[in-house]
Amino acid sequence: MNFEQKHIDALKELLYKMADDQLIIGHRNSEWTGLGPVLEEDIAFSSMAQDKIGQAYQLYSILNELGESDPDTVAFTRNAEQFHCCELVTLPIGGFDFSLVRHFYFDNAELLRFESLAQSTFDPLAMLAKKYKGEIKYHVMHANTWIKQLANGNEESKAKMQNAINNTFADALGIFEKGPYEDVLIEIGFFMGEDALKKQWYDKIKTFVESVGLSIPALDSATPNLGGRAGKHSAYLQPMLTEMTEVYAIDPSADW
User: Fold this and answer.
1) Which of 5, 10, 112, 123 would bridge with 184, disulfide CB 3.0–4.6 Å?
2) Is the pLDDT of residue 21 over 90?
3) pLDDT band at residue 255, thresholds of 50, 70 and 90?
C-alpha cells in the first residue's frame, strides 16, 4: 500500500503515544521493585516493567524506520512537553491499590488495542501487535486476579479497591484521548479509533468488575483527564524523566 504524508504523520502519532505510554508505565512499575506488599508482587511488577520497556523499544524502532531518531535519543532526550503519553501512566505509584487499579485499567485497554492492531494495514505494526498481545494477556490476567482476590478479601480490601476504581476512572478515560489524525487512522485502516476502543474496554471491564462484586462509574459520569497526548502534563512527569534518564546522561552508550 502506498501511503501519503498524512498517513505517515498519523502513523507516527499513533506509535509515539503507544511507545510513550509503555515506556512511562514501565518506569512507574519498576518503582515497585523492593516495595511490593509481598515478594511475588516485587517480581511481578518488575517483570511487567521489563515487558513494557521492551515493547516501547520496538515501537520506537518502527518510528526510527519511518525517519525519527533512534530509540535511545527518542526515549532519553525529550522533555515532558514532547511526550505523548496519557496522564494515567505519569502519576506516581501511590499505594498498591492505586497502582493495581491503574494496571487493571491500562492493560485491559492495551490488550484490546493490540488485538485490534493485529489487523492493521501497516504490516510492521500488525506483526508487532501479534507478537506482544499474548504477553499483554498475561498482564491482564495478573491484574484481574488481584482485583478479584482483594474484592473478595475483607471489607477493608474491598473498600480500597472500590475507592481506587472510582478515583482513577477519570484518569483512565484519558487513555482514549483523540489526536489530530484520528480520522486518518481509521480511514486508512491503521487503527479502529479511540471511541470504538473505549467502548470495547468499558464493556469488558464493567462485566468483570461487577462479577467480583464491585461497581464501575458510568462512562459519562466523569470528565476525562486529557492533555497528555498533546504534551500537556502534570508536574509529576518531568522529575520522573530526569530520574529515568540519569544513566543515559552519564553514559549515552549504555544499553537498555
Assistant:
1) 10
2) yes
3) low
Distances (CA, A) of 130 to 28, 135, 173, 222: 25, 10, 25, 33
Helices 96-117 and 123-151: crossing angle, nearest 10°? 150
Angle at 35 between CA 30 and CA 38, to 5 degrees: 110
Q: What CATH number labels 5-214+226-250?
A: 1.20.1260.10
Query: Across all residues in the chain, what is the average pLDDT?
Result: 94
The DSSP output letter for 225 is -
Q: What angle do CA 76, 72, 103 make, to 5 degrees?
A: 65
The predicted structure's pLDDT at residue 43 = 80
120 within 8 A of 185, measured Cβ to Cβ: no
Return all residues near 255 (Cβ < 8 A) that are at least 6 apart: none
Lowest-pLDDT choice from 71-75, 87-91, 92-96, 243-247: 243-247
Handedness of CA 132, 137, 139, 140 (dihedral sign): positive
- How far apart are alpha carbons 209 and 239 in whole angstroms? 34
DSSP codes, 140-194? HHHHHHHHHHHHTS-HHHHHHHHHHHHHHHHHHHGGG---TTHHHHHHHTS---H
Of the listed ranges 71-75, 94-98, 216-220, 244-248, the least confidently predicted one is: 244-248
